[in-house]
Amino acid sequence: MSGFRAALARATARSRAELQAAGRRRGQPSDLGRRLSHSGAAPARPSFGIAFDIDGVILRGRSPIGGSPQAIRRLYSEDGTLKIPFLFLTNGGGVPEHKRALELSELLGVNISPAQVVHGHSPYRELVNRFENDLIIAVGKGEPATVMIDYGFRKVLSIDEYSSYFKDIDPLAPFKKWIVQQADNKNMKSEKVHPSYDVFEERVKGVFVLSDPVDWGRDLQVLCDILSTGGLPGSGRGDQPPLYFASDDLEYQAAFPSERLGMGAFRIALESIFNQVNDHQLKYISYGKPNPFVFKNAANILEKLAICMHPSSLPTKKVEGHQFSTIYMIGDNPKVDINGALKAGPPWSPVLTRTGVFRGKDNDPQYPADLVVDTVEDAINCILEKECIQ
Ligand code: G3P
Ligand code: MG
């Protein structure tokens, strides 16, 4: 135990030095130095916020990792109120944010609000007006159509439902004995008989990939059909409808010991097949980290959260127009989480854990974080010590 404490003390001292060095690199030595030596009480409105990646930092599959429940609980007061503004900034998704908030609350033992959950597909909300009365297809694991309907889209079909209306669209379907029966199987069967929309006449006007596709083979086929024909499988060639991906992660950390192929891998597969069977290139837009706009949006949410927590007090420091002097991005994927925070620039400060995609001994050479720690719990210990929070 004492050996562990000593190791943690050494890690903390090293981390402090790394954070100081990072501050100097960013030209804020006095600010960081002052905060590191400060020993007073916590400010009324915290001058910092935290964004947590989920897969590979907080969870692996559905299991908490790296002391995440203890780490997150330190951000709440004894009475359960939020002490430090934080949110989850994940490229994952497939369920509505309020449902994910509930699931995380149960797994971590704290009260997380839907506003604190930002999925890769959360920005799709902004596209509702553009597709208001159009038939759109939602792709991915979980409940992609429910998410889109929740956002306000009106004519949404999941790719499962859509494909089910087209006889023989997937020639391999009869061989797929592994297909898991959905809980709402009965409803789906009756919908198959009475499609909600005239899918044989009405063209698909947009395709939204929300989460990792489940049946890659079928989805590659059906998406190639939709995208090559102007939104009507089985008809002639037509203009490609807009295609959106919630993220572009090539790999991510799930429950299996080594990384799993993510949405970016699916995008590569779709793009290369589409480009082979068409005489023009696939067009698409990807959201999610490392897109700087995702970090800007997260910073706005954190600021609103801080104002809600302390409506009458002003921020302790305002640095170059930011409400926060630092927003820590705690992630496991250098290419995605650390790269994104570096691209976003101040007040973002990336922190890399070794519980997911990254397992290196030192820092990532291509996308170096301000701090590298073993777990999210170590990250929170270092951050709270640096920010003088008990
Ligand atoms: O499918 C989830 C994955 O792409 C990444 O999730 O939480 O590591 O951003 P996260
Ligand atoms: Mg991750």
TrEMBL record:
Segments for region (Disordered): 18-40
InterPro entries in the cross-refs: CDP-alcohol_PTase-I, HAD-like_sf, HAD-SF_hydro_IIA, HAD-SF_hydro_IIA_CECR5, HAD_sf
This protein's GO CC annotations: mitochondrion
Domain of life: Eukaryota
Single Gene Ontology BP annotation: glycerophospholipid biosynthetic process
Database matches in Pfam families: Hydrolase_6, Hydrolase_like
Protein name: TIGR01456 family HAD hydrolase
